[in-house]
Design a protein that fits this description.
- This protein has a two-stranded antiparallel ribbon.
- The longest helix is centred in the C-terminal third of the chain and has 16 residues.
- The protein is 39% helix and 9% strand.
- The chain is mainly alpha-helical.
Length: 108
Amino acid sequence: MGRLNAGSPEPSTPHSPHHIMVGNLLKAVSIKTVLGKFGTGVNDAENGGWLPLSSRSPNPTGASVHSRIHTNDYYDYVNDLMGEARTQQEAFDIIGHVRKQLQGGYWP
């Protein structure tokens, strides 16, 4: 997620960049297609965010922990949501919604 590093500095160590819409799974083929249709990609800053690396990482805001959110439930959820996007703005709104959930500790 190279462009994320340029667009949003790591909040504290250790944090990990997270692809909100995941692109390296078989289920994610549709995500790549949808994002590409709207002129963005899985590695673009719009599709990323910083999360605490593990449960031992500083987490003063109670964000979801990166090492725990990669579940089938999460993947199914974001795939279903992104399937509803009809415009680039809708796709970015969906990504923003999931980002807020992650920052608020909704996942897992």
